[in-house]
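QUALITY CONTROL LOG
STEP: pairwise intake check
CHECKER ROLE: data steward
CRITERIA: each record must contain a sequence immediately followed by its structure tokens, with no blank fields

ENTRY 1 OF 2
RESULT FIELD BELOW
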Amino acid sequence: MAQIQKIYKDTWGTHKNPEIRKNFIYNLPYMIQTFENRDYLKGLYLKALRDNDKNIKYCAISFIHEISKILGPDEAVNSFSEIFESLLKEDDPKVKEKLVKNFHEVAMVFQSKTDDKYEDSKDQKEVKQRGIKLKILDAKSKF
């Protein structure tokens, strides 16, 4: 397993072929779930979310819900909330399409973190649910 992780570390960022880099990203959810030391792999994933090659970026966005679940609420919110918000603000309709497709799953991971911080009163839950629905509707309306 250490050899596979070394290949990711040594090859991904420097490889010229975007298809090979995209395949690395495609396998990251499994890799992050498998390896105990996932900081480097998580860093690769964050780089992929900002990649200049749109196909790599789209591929990475497609897995944000899976990786968020693997990491759990605390780590997912700490790692992805800023990039997730910035992706929601992008003008590229395909980015929004990829985000909206599994938005409910990401929102559930982020929601469980929010529920830990605040009391679970009925009013607060309604406000949170309306906020999530508004973000989804806003993202869909920009297609």
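ENTRY 2 OF 2
RESULT FIELD BELOW
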Amino acid sequence: MKWRAIAVVASAVGALLGSAAAAQAQGAIATIQRPATLPLRRSPEAGAAAGGFKYVDIAVTGFHPSSTGPVQIVVDAQGRTGRIEVGRFGLYPEHAFSGDPAKVQRFTLNIPEGLRVTPATRLSVRLEPARGTGEGAFVELDPGLLR
């Protein structure tokens, strides 16, 4: 009986750890020191993209500002001739948030002409200090949505 209780507890802990790891794998975290690789998925509303996708929607689900000044979120992708910047944006107000669906901030970026982006493409997201060092800042992101 004691072994059965231990097995049940171990199974529950394994399930919780597995779901936490899966949730972490779905999104990405970018810092000043470490860019994030952002997975992409097709929007359910996106039809057959004959000329390719035109937009990518970025959802910032969490943010911690730097105490040294504001940061910009920079999104780029690998093009035929090197890295191509897709866009950049900042968050306002610069207050920390995480896990609150009401505080998620969404941004739509135009995919540059000549850059072919598919769900297999991975975008790079990095933080750049606008002023100061950006130390301590990070953003949490959901996978990008192509449309």
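INTAKE CHECK: passed for both entries
DESCRIPTIVE NOTE, ENTRY 2: The chain has one domain: 27-146.
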